[in-house]
Amino acid sequence: MVAIIVLLTSATAQKKINPGEVWPDDKGNHIQAHGGGIVKIDKYYYWYGEQRRQGLDTGLRYVSCYRSKDLASWQFMGDALQLSDPEHLGSNWVLERPKVYFNRKTKTYVMYFHLDDARYKLARVGVATSNKPEGPFTYRESFRPLEKESRDIGQFIDDDGTAYLVFESWPTKGFFIARLSDDYLKVEKEVCLINAPLEGGAIVHYKGLYYAIGSALTGWNPNPNKYATAKSLEGPWSEFKDIAPPETNTYSSQSTMMLKVEGTKDTTVIFMADQWKPKTQWDSRYLWMPLQTGDGKLWLPEPKPWSIDIKTGKVQF
Ligand code: GAL
């Protein structure tokens, strides 16, 4: 009898995700995976992001790696990338918004990140690879994808497994969706330019429709993030609309990714965003919330604690 009760309680009590709160990892430290992305490989979700803890070597830039089976409890796997200025960019050089793809053919983990100088004039992606998810990743090179300026990057893997890089382009005002090469080491083909002055681009494919989210260009300050839809990645894309009441500035957050969890009962799309604290970046928070999505509409409900059952895909508040 006792065993049954224990089983029942553990089945119903999923660990909560608390948007905007300190999010302790397995060692009790606030998770450092800012501007991050998530990739699921077999039974684990891997979360990579900007490592911004206090006391780091200021000459280096770091990408952290965490893993989880339930999206709520995260184990710190260490700093997957530790990089010294790879292109003589000078002090305050920038490595932001890392994203990792796993190439099943080459069994290689391929990391992309925004690489820049202090004035954001270089506008390139950097590429690093590893044969293990937790790294160490080795720097390979940097380039401008499709010869275009590239700043904020986003990651999108379609249901058929095709991998895309989303990158923000200032001169053309918008973000490109570009297909990666077979080995993921190059950005091969322009699929679309979403022609709206947005960054922090995120895409999800949900029930036959593509949804794209982006934020306005206000640096670390939050703004009303917007979404558009299209039947095909090539477009045409609809007008952009608010994802939340505009006066909340997306509940003080900026988009970084949408993560789709396909369970046995429900498919849930999670909005992953950063609540930046530019002066104390190590304390920047995460706003993760299940989106209300469907029939061409997308809405970010007011943040509150929630949990997800990864098996069924069901969300509870
Ligand atoms: C934001 C961007 C961040 C970071 C910041 C610097 O617009 O999304 O990743 O680059 O500007 O001001």
From TrEMBL:
Organism: Pinibacter aurantiacus
Taxonomic lineage from the root: Bacteria, Pseudomonadati, Bacteroidota, Chitinophagia, Chitinophagales
The keyword Flavoprotein is annotated on this UniProt entry: no
UniProt cross-references to CDD domains, sorted A to Z: GH43_Pc3Gal43A-like (cd18821)
Database matches in InterPro entries: Glyco_hydro_43
Keywords (A to Z) from UniProt: Glycosidase, Hydrolase
Signal sequence region: none
Site (Important for catalytic activity, responsible for pKa modulation of the active site Glu and correct orientation of both the proton donor and substrate): D152
Family under the similarity heading: Belongs to the glycosyl hydrolase 43 family.
Gene Ontology biological process terms in this record: carbohydrate metabolic process
Protein name from the UniProt record: Family 43 glycosylhydrolase
Molecular function per GO: hydrolase activity, hydrolyzing O-glycosyl compounds
